[in-house]
Amino acid sequence: MLYAMERKLSVFEETNQEFIVRILQKVHSRMIGLFNRFVEDQVRGIEETKVKIKKRKGVISFMKIFPIFSVTVENMLAGPSQEVFDVRFSVNDAYAKINRAMWESLKFIAKEAPNQQAGPSGGTGDPEDKEALNHHILLIENMNHYIEEVDCRGNIVLEEWQGRATHDMLEHSKLYIDAVIRRPLGKLLDFVESTESLLQTVSPATDIALRPSHSRSIAKKLLISYDLKELRRGIDHLKKRIEKHFGDADDPGLSRSLVVKMLKECESRYADAHDRTKLIVDMVYEGQMELEWRKEEATSMFRK
Predict the structure, then answer these.
(1) Comparing C-alpha atoms, which of 213, 153, 216 is closest to residue 187?
(2) I need a surface site. Which of 61, 165, 281, 285 has the fewest CB within 10 A?
């Protein structure tokens, strides 16, 4: 309606029909006021959601509605010359206000999960902290929904917020994977990380093997404990856990694609753990030990 009104106004402003122009200007001003009031109501509704909602998981209602709202608006404004009208500035300003409210409310909801005592990044330091994991899961699901469902149509404001969604999803995906990967690979990663730290200060690298905590017998025992059976057990458990966290969303298609994304990240972490361990075996233990599994075997287990 605003777009149509501005087109008519622009036509009559080029004529001598002053009376019609004044009428159209008044109607236009009223419509702008109604639109601004509508946006304020939407923002208020989003802000109220954060204190009403009890189900602190899955895609939040306003994140589901916004992609439908934005594509409807963009369809109304479709046309080669729509950018020259004031309505585009009003719509972009509305997008910015609504998205800002959605982000603030979503992060409030995530942080206010029962017993949640997360720090600035949403973590508590305990990889098995259920509420810290729920914090990341909620943000990952909602950011993924925004990325997949919002059709930017080249709109600079929507592209900006989609970029922010991508950034937030990457940040919380990393924190989530950091946490869940510890259950199957925690002991191996602890050993790898402590050895990598020592490599920064100890020279030659083989001297690390002289330390009781990193002796050849300790290293060999650890590597043997991560055999193919343990590898399969850990990956199977990890797959079930990720399926539980992300596999029951309202949209089966988005849910499935998100599970695949998370499993791909885990697969990459296993490959990275293998390479880091192999490097330590070569540098510290002079290649005199063998890993009990190969990257290809882990990849195959993830993709079954």
Answers:
(1) 213
(2) 61
Q: Give me 220's structure tokens.
A: 């060999």
Other Cβ atoms within 10 Å of 6 Cβ, number: 21
Q: What is the chain's pLDDT, residue by residue, as a tens digit (304 residues)?
A: 444 445 544 544 445 556 455 555 565 566 677 888 989 999 999 998 875 555 556 899 999 999 999 999 888 877 655 444 577 888 999 999 999 999 999 988 887 654 444 443 444 456 667 888 989 999 999 999 999 999 999 999 999 999 999 999 999 999 999 999 999 999 999 999 999 999 999 999 999 999 999 999 999 999 999 999 999 999 999 999 999 999 876 778 888 899 999 999 999 999 999 999 999 999 999 999 999 999 999 999 999 8
Q: What is the value of pTM for the model shown?
A: 0.84
Q: Where do the domains of the chain lie?
A: 2-180, 182-303
Token pair belonging to 235: 């990956």
CB 146 within 8 Å of CB 161: yes
